[in-house]
Fold this sequence. Notes:
This protein is of the alpha+beta class and 295 residues long. Helices cover 32% and strands 19% of the residues. Residues 115-177 form the CBS domain.
Amino acid sequence: MSPVEGCPNVFQAICGVAPGLHQYKFYIDGEWRHDEHQPCVTGNYGIVNTLLLTRDPDPIPPILSPGRPGNITTMEVDSEAFRHVEAPSRISEADVEISRHHISVFLSTHTSYELLPESGKVIALDVNLPVKQAFHILYEQGIPVAPLWDSFKGQFVGVLSPTDFILILRELGNHGSNLTQEELETHTVSAWKEGKQLLFGQVDAQGRPFQRPLVHAGPYDSLKELAIKILQNDVATVPIIHSSSQDGSFPQLLHLATLSGILKCKYLQTFQILLWFFTHSTTTNMHNPFGYMGS
């Protein structure tokens, strides 16, 4: 890092990189950061900025102009040396159909199993846990959602999500004075779910709480089937559950799938293709302009 002439509080760094797809972060005050105003993705190093260099870099001018004020808090990458790929102003209908076809093929030929991380943990909560304790566990484990296990039925019966937390706070605000401290401490997740069904009119012909089956997927379901389940059932998370028996007994929780996880899987596959391309291309090919991939 070197100071910008005329701006003692502003520093610049000049980097020379080859054409290709690059990821970067900013190291500021002992902390790695990213610029949320630039293209970014979530990867193995957290949220990182990305850029695709499509030509040989010209001599790099100063990143920051000396004429700018000295107290600058934004993080910038020189737009002349590094040109971010932007979507074309006009996309033909044929290009749209080709992209849709590529995405459909990808989702149809890849399975939910590919969403599973190489290592990690999955946590399920017993439906008989007190609600207060259940949310404490979610907070301590740093997870927003957890499937619910009913040991009596021997199966997963639902999920506990931030939406439940918001609804519980709202109900406590409306009727909290009618509950004793002991009732607040012992109110179970199962009791809350039944009360939630009554609250939203999810009852059968006899007026009893009606619990719809848990929306879940198997590890060998295609990503297309998984995405359709998420969209059609209007849910944010779908548990990936595997059972070695045909009747579904002894289910094993493998993963919690989301649309963002599916998109990340697609991104990683595209990144691997780009990495292979730049690794195996000749020097001549490396200098050819490279735009965007259709898949």
